[in-house]
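Q: Got a minute? One more chain.
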Amino acid sequence: MNTYSVKAYGTESKEADLKQMNIERRQTTTKDVEIEILFCGVCHSDLHTARNDWGGTKYPAVPGHEIVGRITKVGSEVSQFKVGDLAGVGCIVDSCGTCESCKQNLEQYCLTGFTGTYNGTDEHLGGHTFGGYSEKVVVDADHVLRIPENLDLAAVAPLLCAGITTWSPLKHWNVGPNSKVAVVGLGGLGHMAIKLAKGLGAEVTLFSRTPGKSDDAKQLGADHVVISTDEEQMKSVKGKFDVIIDTVPYDHDVNPYISTLNINGTHVLVGYLGGLENILNTVPMILGRKSVAGSVIGGIAETQEMLDFCGEHNIVSEIEMIKMQEINEAYERMLKSDVRYRFVIDMKSL
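A: Always. Here it is, folded:
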């Protein structure tokens, strides 16, 4: 297959900083679109992949799966997009399309494994996929998203990961105007969970370990803030919540939150991958038909639904714009939670 070279930012090893490099993109096939990347959000997954924190990183690694841009080429069999359209690419660029999950538009749970925007198996060129820290990307049109024209494009980018990661469980557990939702953790995921739950009409509470985030949470749409280290405050919300969206990215004790669930309530983990060292106490679960569950991103159709909803309700992420050359500093700041609440790269700086 014919290829062409584009500028990108990536790393050659887990110890190395990200730097400018050239990568190969495939020439647009009949089913593809080519997108000039305008903005790319910076996700914790980018950092973890670059540094091989989860194992399995293929180098050179070019992260980035919160991509917003304009279409510059369209394959002959593509009817849903035209040159000049705004477009987005999230975490998925391909899936088998035939398994039971894919048939239900749940590509994120593809039984053979979806193809990640970066560090996935490149079925076209061989090797592995490269992400959005680059000038352009070529993607199968069925995995490309329409971006609402009325939104701040830079602030849309994090919706393609942080937004859909929180939207998917909110929709799956039928959050709406009569729902009581709590969010654990106020970061990139947490602030989107608050905005989206509020947009769906729910009464929203933030669980925080410290009082310092109360004003920010309420500006984002939270109705209440509960300090999770305050025993009396935790008692005051016993049995209250239908859904808890837990965005904490490290091992933590979920037991204190279970008592705050209502009958049939669900505590959904979206931020942490790994084992929980604290033993899960099943007593309140069994006596209240409560659940602890997990959820990841959404499929293409669900992500489009989320983007359309955000367009209708003018919901975007809170961002700090950076230049591509500032990415290594941004990673260090992310480790210190020194961002409100998501970095976005202006790709014109590449």
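A: The radius of gyration is 20 Å.
Q: Perfect, thanks.
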